[in-house]
Specification:
about 475 residues, 23 strands, about 30% helix
Length: about 475
Amino acid sequence: MNFGEYNTSGVYDELCESTGLPREGAETVYNYFNSLSLDELRARQKNLEVSMMNMGITFNVYSEEGGIERIIPIDIIPRIIRAKEWEHLEKGLKQRIFALNEFLKDIYSEQKILKDKIMPSETIFSSKGFLKECMHVKPLKDIYIHITGTDLIRNAQGEFVILEDNLRCPSGVSYMLQGRELSKQGLAKLISKAKVKSISDYPEKLFQALKYISGKAEPTIAVLTPGIYNSAYYEHSYLAQQMGVELVDYRDLIVENDFLKLRTTKGLKTVDVLYRRLDDFFIDPIHFNPMSLIGIPHLFNVYKKGNIGLANALGTGVADDKVVYAYVPKIIKYYLGEEPILDNVETYLCEDPKSRDYVLKNIEHLVVKEANEAGGYGMLIGPKASREEHELFKQKILQNPRNYIAQPTISLSTSPCFIDGTIEPRHVDLRPYILYGEDIHVTPGGLTRVALKKGSLVVNSSQGGGSKDTWVLNK
């Protein structure tokens, strides 16, 4: 009885009710793991980790000396999402992505949302992600956000809410795909018995979305990587391989006569679509950051003339801004005339004097985030921080209030994990992946990130988090 002493501690658990019994629909998975011996669980967990290392599924930790290459810790017990829950999530994510794309089209053209005072103009113009150079530059097919990874958590009521949007260069999808392949090695029969939705068509769906941008029957598509030292280089090479397209860096590309060309053994070849894993500011040293050594000079000219599809489009970072995030419910209502299907987490904007005063007085109870940071950096978790850290962040907020938001400390839902020979709850979030091509497709699953330290709410791999496979059930 591996779940005999499993204690949810009053927090919403993905697999178990507060009684310790399985949630409706999750009995098959619960019973399976409850019946395995601890020795069998240990052996399977070990095999999982060895397979992950053998497959080369790694990331780099630059905060450590020498940029250590590591596997992302992975847990053997999958995270379960039931069919009705997924149906609701899917509808909400499609609504959100469509509205955000409409927002980006507007912000880089007529800016009606600003003229109608739905949100302050200064919020946009002061955003690090807003590129004035992209004004009136239309991406192919009018699509800005071809690939999105949206982070969700469950609140205390067990409802999914949006934590943040990742629209520039969302990462982690390779860990989702490989996590499922690893699950199949040891749990194939359970996957079939539990009727788990497949995610294996993601590379083909991604390829079709990229192909759609070009409008060509046989376009040349390439994945642009910053290089082998980038923390997500494994993912760049994996996705290029899975799609059967070229993996390139700046040395492979040159602009000629306002077209992007790929150097090949047979001469130069025109590139139609570039899936870029490079931030805006590094992509063209002529137009953006002259210090960039990894960009392609004059690529922006190719883009402006409509001779290249970039996924995601330049300038999408303005919708990644955590201050803009607070306005997404209004954005949905403005462009679609609908109420949001998925709620945001309650958010305090420190640029607003009243909200700032509240944050400064209650900082020990709040999570404070920098507007443009990611990966768990630039963040204060008030209840876990020291008084000195509280005072430091207060000063940061006062010095640059536009750069900070705050949110209540939400105790993320938990999911069972095999930790040191026992099954224990650990906090998790969820990053589903959404593709926008001819239509909007949400892959049924996502990357479940796990805070492996007991009681921790930090799930980011760069901060010591792990992952687990995400199973969306068919019924």
